[in-house]
Amino acid sequence: MEGKIAEKVVGILAAQALIAPQEISPGATVESLGLDSLGLVEAIFAIEEEFEISIPFNPADPSEAPAFDTQSVQSIILAVTDLVARKSA
Predict the structure, then answer these.
(1) Which residues contact 24 (CB under 8 A, 6 or more apart)?
(2) What is the CATH number of the domain that holds 49?
(3) Can you tell me the distance from the alpha carbon of 20 to that of 89, in angstroms, rounded to the nearest whole number?
(4) How many domains are contained in the chain?
(5) Mean of the per-residue pLDDT values for the chain?
(6) Which of 4, 16, 41, 62 gives the lowest tally of CB atoms within 10 Å of its CB?
(7) What is the pLDDT of residue 67?
(8) Taking a C-beta distance cutoff of 8 angstroms, is the pair 83, 53 a contact?
(9) DSSP secondary-structure letter at 34?
């Protein structure tokens, strides 16, 4: 399941960053992808819609939701995987 989640998350981030998914590495940061705060919020909305989850994320106060780490592509994938698993439980 995690592979499919990773593939979809990378696809969403790539679409927001206007780059090919193959150009995204797990260690890439949101900033290195060229996403600003608006791009990140749009990506989060797309991820929520794709996986039918609610992501605890407030761009005005990043400390409010330490459970959703947006520091790297891998951390986003892990957080989404966790939220999907909780939804399924």
Answers:
(1) 10, 13, 14, 17, 33, 73
(2) 1.10.1200.10
(3) 33
(4) 1
(5) 88
(6) 4
(7) 61
(8) yes
(9) T
Structural domain range at position 17: 2-88
Report, as an integer, the average pLDDT of 4-10: 96
Q: Where are the alpha helices (DSSP H) in 18-61?
A: 37-51
Give percent of the chain above pLDDT 90: 73
Identify the pLDDT of residue 42: 95
Cα–Cα dist 86/78, whole Å: 12
74 three-state secondary structure: helix
Name the CA dihedral angle for 68, 48, 37, 57, rounded to a multiple of 10 degrees: -40
Q: Which two tokens stand for residue 23?
A: 């150009």
Task: Fill in the amino acid letter for 3.
Answer: G
> What residue type is 22 in one-letter code?
Q
